[in-house]
Design goal:
It is a single chain. By secondary structure, this protein is an alpha/beta fold. It has one domain: Peptidyl-tRNA hydrolase (Rossmann fold, 3-Layer(aba) Sandwich), CATH 3.40.50. The protein contains 6 helices and 7 strands. The chain has a 7-stranded mixed beta sheet, sandwiched between helices. Helix 2 runs parallel beside helix 3. The longest helix has 22 residues. The two termini are 12 Å apart.
Length: 181
């Protein structure tokens, strides 16, 4: 089994903000693969389904970003999922809006969600999809920028990165599992 975690903050006030890019990506993937989103476990939205013949669990922690590692660790422990079978999808201000980059292992680069996960699972060796949300304009704090909603034009550009995200899931993250069958 593989685990795909989308990072964000719970609550209506954070819907469609840049920091909730990971939640948006998981919602996109669930719809694409015809998997419902009503399951709850581990203090999170949690569902499982089959994607390209691989059993996959999806999790959106219902804790603030800096506490998201706990629910992910709980799911990994319960399902006996190793860090190498975890994919975390998150926002990244150092990447241009509309771009998605795939990475395996590395540091948290100041991202509090990644910092929380690394602290909880005691590993940096997991897969990530970094979704670009741009750096803030001059005079705007990083916090204000990531907690702000996309403009209509920005949202349209951001949504294009979700198709690339699905390609990474299928052709990188899950492809390894299929090769080892």
């Amino acid at each position: 089994m593989k685990l795909i975690a989308g990072l964000g903050n719970p609550g209506a006030e954070y819907e469609n903000t840049r920091h909730n890019a990971g939640f948006c990506a998981v919602n996109f993937l669930l719809k694409k693969y015809g998997i419902g989103d009503k399951g709850r476990a581990y203090g999170a939205v949690f569902v499982t389904g089959m994607v390209n013949k691989v059993e996959v669990a999806f999790i959106k922690p219902m804790k603030y970003m800096n506490l998201s590692g706990g629910p992910i660790r709980d799911a990994m422990d319960s399902l006996e999922i190793a860090p190498k079978d975890l994919l975390v999808i998150h926002d990244d201000i150092d990447i241009e809006l509309g771009r998605a980059l795939y990475k395996v292992s590395g540091g948290h680069a100041g991202h509090n969600g990644l910092r929380s996960i690394m602290g909880e699972i005691k590993s940096r060796d997991f897969h990530r999809i970094r979704l670009g949300v741009n750096r803030p304009d001059e005079g705007v704090s990083v916090t204000d920028h990531v907690l702000d909603r996309f403009s209509d034009e920005e949202r349209e550009v951001f949504l294009k990165s979700l198709s690339k995200c699905a390609e990474f899931v299928e052709n990188r993250f899950l492809a390894e599992e299929l090769i080892n069958e």
